[in-house]
Amino acid sequence: MSNEFSFENEQYRKTYWHTCSHVLAQAVKRLYPDVKLAIGPAIDEGFYYDMDSPISFTPDVLENIEKEMKKICKEKIKLERFELPRAEALELMKEEPYKVELINDLPEDAPISFYKQGDFTDLCAGPHLDSTGRIKGNAIKLLSCTGAYWRGNEHNKMLQRIYGIAFPKKDELDAFLKEKEEAKKRDHNKLGRDLEYFNTVDCIGQGLPILLPKGARVIQLLQRWVEDVEQEHGYLLTKTPLMAKRDLYRISGHWDHYLDGMFILGDPYDETKECFALRPMTCPFQYQVYLNRARSYRDLPMRLGETSTLFRNEDSGEMHGLIRVRQFTISEGHLVLRPDQLEQEFADCLWLAKYCLDTVGLLDQCTFRFSQWDPANPNNKYEGTAEQWNEAQRVMGEILDKLGVKYDIGIDEAAFYGPKLDIQYKNVYGKEDTLVTIQIDMLLAEKFGMYYTDKDGEKKLPYIIHRTSLGCYERTLAYLIETYAGALPTWMAPEQVRILPITDRAADYAYEVAAKLKKSKFRVEVDASSNTLRYKIRNAQTEKIPYMIIVGDKDMENQTISIRHRSGEDLGAMSYAEFEALLKDVVDSKAKK
User: Fold this and answer.
1) Which residues are within 8 A (CB) of 223 and not within 5 positions of it... i.e. 6 or more apart?
2) pTM of the model
3) Dist. CA 490–CA 361, nearest whole Å
4) Among 115, 287, 295, 487, which residue's beta carbon has the most beta carbons within 10 A?
5) Mind listing the pLDDT tens digit for each residue in 437-448?
6) Stretch 163-190: mean pLDDT, rounded?
7) 166 Cβ partners below 8 Å, 6+ apart?
């Protein structure tokens, strides 16, 4: 088979999956004729079809649909493309209201194409395989059904979305399903709840997780560590309000470019009354620190850092555990600097982000995206002129190339005021989100009148770098849970040691050891329950506790402790001093175990 028709070829793979979505739709219409079809594209991993159905697509129903799909593949039905004038297209699709809406939304001169396969015809631009026989029926699997608003708009009707996957060979499907089962075991949305790191409550709201004591402790440890690291690198700590009047956001441009993404307190369109908004980012607040007094070139660079709580009105369909939420905390900072300082400060920001990500164990799986503006959409989304954007992107591109950063380019992914380097990460299901950003801003300083006096006595505008060291702490915690399958490195584990007395007689000794460890700032608990030792060990392993100390009569007599690691490794008996030294070395080195 040539590469053109190989599953390694992305275009062929998408064509294969797109054809599978039509086979899915045909199978549904055969079994449930009253179902109304919406859209069914290929996606990065498989395909889906949105449907308005009078029945629920339960697992049993999906199994029946899957069997019908396999029959259609065996029938080797030819796929034929044809076009129709608008009036005839609307007549053909008159029983399919969602297709009629799509046709009516097409430009007048746009071709209206269809694909016919036997008794089934669908509105589609294609491309498709030439026959359903090209699809291997025994390598098709319908994975799930979820809700999805028509056209992604929560004001529209909720449809049912069936997800599926298919491969040319059965063993490829088996490998994929095995990989997905492993992903489920690591999914932070389940594992994080099972281990009691966080939960969500309906009466509080979607995207507003409750951090339970374990999750809150991990984030506190990360925040304190990042703040200390930033202080060592010359950052000045700030603490700014969680909200401001709309006047501030008008100056920054957020009111014009980000209003839909903000939580508003008051009527945004009533100019006779005060209106506030919860902050979606910290930059316009931190600028006030710079503006507190006149600045000289000697004051620059000024590095401002803050552990910021932010609020963004994300779409309900985008919410996912701790990865995408409406309130989150971030290691946000802004550097105000002279143009001649830009390259070095940007490099230092990148080094710091990579250092933090490497220390927590996420860097190896990160990718980099150079997010740029879209020149075709300048007026509605972006501030500044084409010349300003081209200059900012030229400078940033030169810095990235000089630093040897390997990146993809993301058009229309920039902030409204400047280009950025996005450090990307994928969750266990392959969904990519931004973990850290470093942005060059040549526009907002002028909006806020952030001048400095240069050595020649002239007033000049600085550049600004917007950046994070570790990004959103909630999202970072989610990725840590998935990366380590819940077994977080000892230095950040909410509970580092659990002491397990074998007998009631050993309980007092266990509490003595715990008191010593706590005095040395280690996080330790004692399980003095009446459960068997085997049960206590299994429970500690299930909770991913890094170290277990087992104490019995012999340990009391010899003044020793017996150490067991969560991996199952028996480290044997040792003195308290030996174990404390071992634990201190693991924690201080921030070892990934």
Assistant:
1) 307, 329, 331, 473
2) 0.84
3) 12
4) 287
5) 999 999 999 999
6) 94
7) 16, 17, 20, 46, 47, 135, 136, 139, 140, 141, 173
What's the pLDDT score for residue 1? Answer: 42
Average pLDDT score over residue span 324-334: 96
Q: How far is CA 149 from CA 25, 315, 395, in A?
A: 18, 11, 41
User: If we measure between CA atoms, which residue out of 343, 335, 344 comes closest to residue 302?
Assistant: 335
pLDDT tens, residue by residue, 520-554? 999 999 999 999 999 999 999 999 999 999 999 99
> Residue written as tokens 């942005």?
439
Give the tokens for residue 122: 């669908």
* CA distances to 121, 135, 279, 299, 422 from 165, in Å: 22, 11, 41, 58, 30
Lookup: tokens for 336: 């105000």
Structure tokens at 568: 């199952």
Rounded Cα–Cα distance for residues 291 and 435 (Å): 29
Peptide bond before residue 127 is cis, with ω within 30 degrees of 0: yes
Strand 452-453 versus strand 420-426 pairing type: unpaired
User: Which residue do the tokens 């990934």 mark?
Assistant: 592
Q: What is the pLDDT of residues 387-408, one digit of tens each?
A: 999 999 999 999 999 999 999 9
| pLDDT greater than 80 at residue 478 | yes
The model's confidence at residue 153, banded by pLDDT at 50, 70 and 90, is: confident
Cβ 207 vs Cβ 324: under 8 Å: yes
Burial class of residue 94 in the structure, from the number of CB atoms within 10 Å of its CB (0-12 exposed, 13-18 middle, 19+ buried) = exposed
Choose among 48, 37, 15, 244: nearest CA to 123.
37
Sign of torsion over alpha carbons 157, 160, 165, 166: negative
Distance between CA atoms of residues 448 and 170, nearest Å: 61
Q: Give the separation between CA 360 and CA 470, rounded to whole angstroms.
A: 9
Q: How many residues make up the chain in this entry?
A: 593
- Which whole-number Å values give the CA distances from 264 to 87, 207, 274, 312, in the listed order? 45, 17, 11, 10
Would you tell me the crossing angle of helices 473-483 and 213-232 to the nearest 10 degrees?
Answer: 110
Asked if residue 500 lies in contact with residue 540, where contact means CB atoms within 8 angstroms, the answer is yes
Residue 9 reports pLDDT greater than 90: no
Relative to beta strand 547-551, strand 264-265 is unpaired
Is residue 474 a contact partner of residue 328, using CB atoms and an 8 Å limit? yes
Report percent pLDDT > 70 for the chain: 99
327 strand-pairing partners: 311
Mean pLDDT computed over 265-294: 95
For 86-118, how does the pLDDT look when each residue is reduced to its tens digit (9 = 90+)? 999 999 999 999 999 999 999 988 899 999 999
Q: In 10 A of CB 126, how many CB atoms?
A: 14
Are the CB atoms for 422 and 437 separated by under 8 Å? yes
Pairing of the two strands 302-311 and 459-460: unpaired
